[in-house]
Design brief:
globular, single chain, four-stranded parallel beta sheet, alpha/beta, 21 helices
Length: 458
């Protein structure tokens, strides 16, 4: 008898763990056609078998298009050949969806709920809310791990670029050093904290703020972290594009830097966000980050491979400042840019005044206020999830706990202000070919070729 699961989400996670276990045991090819029947409650129910096969496809980064007679071994070959996951990122398992008559997933769509789900409309902002609110768990984002396994087996360097929100996500006493060791045990070459690149972006945005905000009516909209915020703004409030900073996200900057040093490396971002999977595939950004995993997916991988993080030795590296680490919660970007601006230009007469939006509805309200001239701020920050990245749909812990861990990790930083992070100097010096005499003059380093992104559309 197959094991009973509390819900379809638990079963889907169990199927993914089975894929991971078999992949590492090098038995996935010979066993994959058997997996649907191991999890089936009625092996003669063709719709159930097709639905389970679709869960396998999504678990391998493919579209859920399986029928009862689909050969899973053929699909596995396709998955292993994927150099990047194809869009759409958010998919619907129609075998499950067509039997469900609950509209709560439709009602939760925050961009245009009156039109229903926007998954196939080109206007989906990839917030992931429909995934977590789908009562039958028919909606899911593709998991991008199985295509990565081949690189581990071939000895190709694979770097884990972890989001600042990762602090505390895998246990109260699991340190960054333990996480680095765990990721290396999986097969990653090393772990890079994206908070380091948040420090770089703080310098970039502080510099842009200093140049562009000089009068009472001037303001700058940050583009640093949240792809949901950027998707919402560029798709529905395009008249504000000229106020948007031209920097890429720390995720993209981290991937570009690794590819600059190691052109043949594979880069994998790990965070709490579905929208980051879509951001990595934006045409002008594509190639910086090859794959994206979420915290809950990484948790299942650790479980599948029986990795107990609390028992691991620490492999610590001091990479980021307080400012970069607190990017993970609402207000963190504003705080990091503010303290950087104040260091760059302490005598500035027009003071830094920020306003933040917390969650998609609040983002829409803030953007409407800007359009209507109802703001008294000159730096605008939007976070698509309540609480910021710590509130992402693929987090492992609750928002308040995540925020506390991020703040505590920030306070532990030996470096407080991004401008004091000497790792930045070494990075920018490497990219720019700056001589030793110039390396201390951070604002003269040429980092535009790494960080510049144009959002304006023709």
């Amino acid at each position: 008898m197959p094991k009973k699961y509390n819900n379809s989400e638990d079963k889907r996670k169990a199927i993914f763990r089975e894929l991971v276990r078999l992949a590492y045991d090098k038995r996935l090819k010979e066993e994959i056609n058997k997996i649907p029947y191991r999890f089936s409650e009625n092996k003669t129910d063709q719709n159930e078998i097709a639905s389970l096969k679709n869960n396998i496809l999504v678990g391998m980064g493919l579209n859920p298009t399986a029928k009862y007679d689909t050969e899973m071994a053929d699909s596995l070959e396709t998955a292993f050949k994927l150099e990047s996951i194809k869009e759409p990122i958010v998919t619907v398992n129609k075998n499950i969806c067509e039997e469900c008559h609950d509209n709560s997933c439709t009602d939760i769509c925050v961009n245009n709920p009156e039109e229903g789900l926007l998954i196939d409309s080109g206007r989906c902002i990839s917030c992931g809310k429909c995934i977590t609110h789908c009562p039958s768990r028919a909606i899911a984002d593709k998991i991008e791990f199985i295509p990565i396994v081949k690189y581990f087996e071939e000895g190709i360097p694979v770097y884990a670029n972890v989001a600042p929100a990762i602090a505390g996500q895998f246990g109260d006493h699991v340190t960054m050093g333990m996480l680095r060791t765990a990721l290396k045990n999986i097969g990653f070459t090393d772990m890079v904290e994206v908070a380091l690149f948040a420090d770089i972006l703080s310098l970039r945005e502080a510099d842009e703020y200093n140049k562009l905000v000089n009068h009472q009516d001037d303001f700058l909209i940050t583009s640093c972290c949240c792809p949901v915020w950027i998707n919402l703004l560029t798709k529905s409030y395009s008249e504000l594009n000229d106020r948007l900073t031209k920097t890429v996200s720390p995720m993209i900057a981290s991937g570009r830097f690794i590819k600059t040093i190691f052109p043949d490396a594979v880069t994998v971002f790990i965070g709490p966000c579905v929208a980051k999977k879509a951001e990595a595939k934006v045409p002008e950004l594509k190639g910086a980050i090859d794959y994206v995993l979420t915290f809950d997916e990484l948790k299942e991988i650790f479980q599948a491979l029986t990795i107990d993080l609390t028992t691991l030795e620490e492999d610590n590296k001091e990479q980021s400042s307080y400012g970069g680490r607190v990017y993970a919660r609402t207000g963190g970007v504003s705080e990091a840019v503010k303290i950087t601006v104040e260091r760059i230009n302490p005598d500035r007469r027009l003071k830094f005044k920020a306003r933040q939006a917390d969650g998609v509805k609040d983002c829409k309200k803030l953007l409407d206020d800007i359009i209507n001239g109802n703001i008294e701020a000159n730096f605008i920050e939007g976070m698509g999830c309540k609480g910021g990245c710590v509130g992402g749909p693929k987090r492992n812990i609750n928002i308040d706990k995540g925020k506390n861990h991020v703040n505590n990790y920030g306070e532990q930083a030996k470096i407080k202000n991004p401008i004091d992070n000497m790792n930045i100097v070494h990075i920018l010096k490497y990219i720019s070919g700056v001589s030793k005499k110039e390396e201390k003059i951070i604002d003269q380093l040429s980092y535009d070729n790494l960080l510049l992104r144009e959002y304006e559309k023709d």
